[in-house]
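To: structure desk
From: M.T.
Subject: fold request, one chain
Message: Could you run this one when you get a chance? Sequence is below, nothing fancy, just the single chain.
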Amino acid sequence: MLELIDVTKSYGTRRVLDEVSLRVEPGRLTGFVGGNGAGKTTTMRIALGVLKADSGTVLLNGEPITTEDRRRFGYMPEERGLYPKMKVAEQIAYLARLHGYTKTDATAGAERLLRRLGLGARLGDRIEALSLGNQQRAQIAAALVHAPQVLILDEPFSGLDPLAVDVVAAVLAERAAAGAAVLFSSHQLDVVERLCDDLVIIADGTIRAAGSREQLRTQHSRHRYILSSTGDVGWLRDEPGVAVVQFAGGDAVFYVDADETAQRVLRRALDGGEVTAFTAQHPSLFEIFKEVIQ
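Reply: Done. Structure tokens follow.
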């Protein structure tokens, strides 16, 4: 398990991380989301040892991370960093050899991974000749080729078409299933919601929410309801303790300030007509994100 505890980082007088704590469990995909400048990349670079925190601790399996531990990390930066003149398979095999693989094993492993990522027909092409999406796949291969125990990826789905997203997502899920702790950031909240086991939301350098996908959805759906009725539900606008999100015919989505308010709303709706649905609504990750960063 990769763990950051009370990590703080400032640049001059500007504090970019304020006592950030998060955990990335082995065997699980953890999505790391936040707006531009929220602190995602800085957090990742501190976890990798590329940046030094002003204070706080980074642990692997409960122990301080050593140089040897970090050899078992895989990292994909948001900016591309491969050698543009090298051929794709040669580049990835070269990186595998830097991690101690023999030439034979490095070549075989690189080609196998590149084919899995949909680059089997481009093994002999130079990096610079690839489309931006295929360069992204090659960059992901560079992070994965040595079978890391901890995988940290900054915007891995950027520039990928929907089919490529599915391919890369499957490869990351396979790595997690093999026991790796996988942390990735993304602005594509629908992709994060679909893929992740755990979520971490950061804003202004502080963690605003963290937990499993279902825990967060349950936590933030407690006071959000959908009401469908054959009667008029316009009275909800004036109901104490109720904040209406939307109306559509006899349907309404709304927040309540307490469970007692929800029960009062249900009773009034039953008095006014037939209620066909009254249920707590699980919000999307986008809705949770908006709620916690405000």
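Reply (cont.): The chain has a mean pLDDT of 93. Let me know if you need anything else for the meeting.
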